[in-house]
Write a structure and sequence with these properties.
The protein has 133 residues and is α+β, with helices and mostly antiparallel strands. It has a single domain, classed as Nuclear Transport Factor 2, Chain: A (Roll). Helices cover 26% and strands 42% of the residues. The protein contains three helices and six strands. A six-stranded mixed sheet has the order 2-1-6-5-4-3. The longest helix has 14 residues. It is globular and about 45 Å long. Pfam families: SnoaL_2. This is SnoaL-like domain-containing protein. It comes from Nonomuraea glycinis.
Length: 133
């Protein structure tokens, strides 16, 4: 795939993580894709590797917990023929009345236009603060 096609694919996927995005975005993940949340399992409840089906189920549960949904905005995309880097922000109103205003960095590996590996970096302090009672 071309660099521009890779940029478009990862942008569509990241925007698809929000309730404002396209559900077809998950089709951009290769059948054997691995999504890794790069956090410390001892201090953050969501961390480590997930298969494509496990990741999609995780996102469904996450969306179900947000009364007003979550909006994802891509702020930067850098790509080559096999890799892409995305910076993004999100905002959501939580059930506890707090706002989750998150920042992300995603590192993707692509083969033939499909994402085979994703590494998600988030600000865990923001998330823990927002979800705390």
């Amino acid at each position: 795939m071309t660099i521009d096609q890779n940029k478009a694919s990862v942008k569509k996927l990241v925007e698809g993580l929000g309730t404002n995005g396209s559900p077809e975005a998950f089709d951009l993940l290769h059948e054997n894709a691995v999504w890794t949340v790069m956090t410390d399992a001892a201090t953050f409840p969501v961390s480590g590797d997930m298969s494509k089906p496990a990741f999609i189920e995780h996102m469904k549960r996450f969306h179900d917990s947000l009364p007003s949904g979550i909006h994802m905005s891509v702020t930067s995309v850098i790509a080559d023929e096999a890799n892409a880097s995305v910076e993004a922000t999100s905002n959501a109103l939580l059930v506890n009345g707090k706002s989750l205003n998150q920042v992300y960095h995603f590192a993707f590996e692509l083969v033939d236009g499909k994402i085979v590996a994703a590494r998600e970096y988030i600000d865990t302090a923001r998330a823990l603060s927002a979800f705390s009672g």
